[in-house]
Model the fold of this input.
Amino acid sequence: MRLLLIGAPGAGKGTQAVRIAEHFGLKHLSSGDLLRAHVRNETAIGRSIKSFVDAGDLVPDAIVMDMLRKPVVQASAEGGYILDGFPRTVDQAHSAYLVARELQVQVQIAVHLKVGQDELIRRLTARGRGAEDGPEIVKHRLEVYASKTVPLLGYYLERERLVSIDGSQSPDKVGDDLIEALTEARDRLHLDAANA
Ligand code: AMP
Done:
């Protein structure tokens, strides 16, 4: 199965992606984690993107797309993937779709983890992961999400491939709801091993 997870910063994408990956035997690919690893390891990519990540701005599309191509293709050959944090814009979704379709690794279901603004701010400021989670940056990241990423929901809704889950519940309940909804969607779309 090939999935992607859309949610605001603080919606619980990382936690839930791990659970979904374990349950369905998928590779968890987090664009944010991969980018942060580049920054931490001071790679050439890391040096060129640090200022974007620290400011809560989106990293240029080409960097993220190049970084993900190989792991996505590899994961697709090994049972599927759950992408967490990519795509972040309709442009990224469209470009990725064109490339992925050629390689037959395109996304089959998009999942939206829905959490209200107050709860997001509470979670993000409690997390304190560094520069990225300072109060001003948190506010900015939520604005970037609202303006650039929320339109993606319409994009996937039009394709009738969007599953929406209430992410404000306890992590266990969110995980249970996700697994139930995805199992149903998998069966409905006949995403069996042959095209997983
Ligand atoms: P995340 O952990 O998904 O919230 O991502 C952390 C940061 O990495 C974001 O604030 C962006 O700076 C960058 N990032 C992650 N995914 C993407 C993406 N798909 N496109 C552009 N920038 C991204």
About this structure: The mean pLDDT is 92. The pocket of adenosine monophosphate is lined by residues 9, 31-32, 35, 52-53, 56-59, 64, 85-88, 92, 141 (CB under 6 Å).
